[in-house]
Amino acid sequence: MLQGTEKREQPLINLKGYLIGNPITDPKFEKNFQVQGAHGFGIISDQIYEAAMKNCKGNYVKPANQLCAEVLETIDNLISEITDAHVLYKKCVVATPKPIDDAVRRKFLLEESIERNEAPGLDCFTYGYYLAYFWMNNRMTRDALGIKGGTVGEWVRCKKELPYTQDMPSSIPYHLNLTTRGYRALVYSGDHDLQVPQLSTQAWIRSLNFSIGDDWRAWHLDGQAAGFTITYANNLTFATVKGGGHTAPEYQPEECFAMAQRWLDNKPL
């Protein structure tokens, strides 16, 4: 898109910038800071964290010795006890209501270990995913979306493997390229996300070595702190969303809408 825009190719897209939330960017940042994040959230003890630092020496992606591998296995087991997308939420099944017989399709479920006919509890965040099945297959919904009868079969919320080869181990160089060429960027993180901890996002942003414009401060909605933010040179803004998970708008839609609207209007958060 960027190359086409700068070459004035048609259709012309007037690209001004981009915003990304809870972004997977570089595994060495995400995995390494997941350990620090788990310690900060109280999921692992001081002793386990100290053992990880001592034996892994800052590299939690590829353990270099047996002691490091063992402590990382302990950490992974402890993290498995919680919902890493949002550490405060109940660990619930992710399900849709009908069972499937096809073993190949079964593996594409959001949670491979559960059956689709097992519904999450009413107090589960994922109950909304369960209800989505009924809503999307409702005739009134399909009529409103303009879907002609008989053209689309049953809608099922599933997670399929994407048909591509992952050949880009890190997207940091792309962020550096875009921001230094004048494109505005807003990077935000739900502060209760352990899949892509806000610590890791802050770390790769700092690795760009941009100078600070507006230092760390709270940003507000309705007189309350909705998160914290910092701006850097080259029009790069980072913000946390208080109470947000992976991804932040799913958990805190009002706050994220206000944040995005201010940024799109070129106003401070």
From TrEMBL:
GO terms for molecular function: acyltransferase activity, transferring groups other than amino-acyl groups; serine-type carboxypeptidase activity. GO terms for biological process: proteolysis; secondary metabolic process. SUPFAM superfamilies: alpha/beta-Hydrolases (SSF53474). Keywords: Glycoprotein, Signal, Zymogen. InterPro entries: AB_hydrolase_fold (IPR029058), Peptidase_S10 (IPR001563), Ser_caboxypep_his_AS (IPR033124). Pfam families: Peptidase_S10 (PF00450). Signal peptide: none annotated. Belongs to the peptidase S10 family. This is Serine carboxypeptidase-like 19. It comes from Aegilops tauschii subsp. strangulata (Goatgrass).
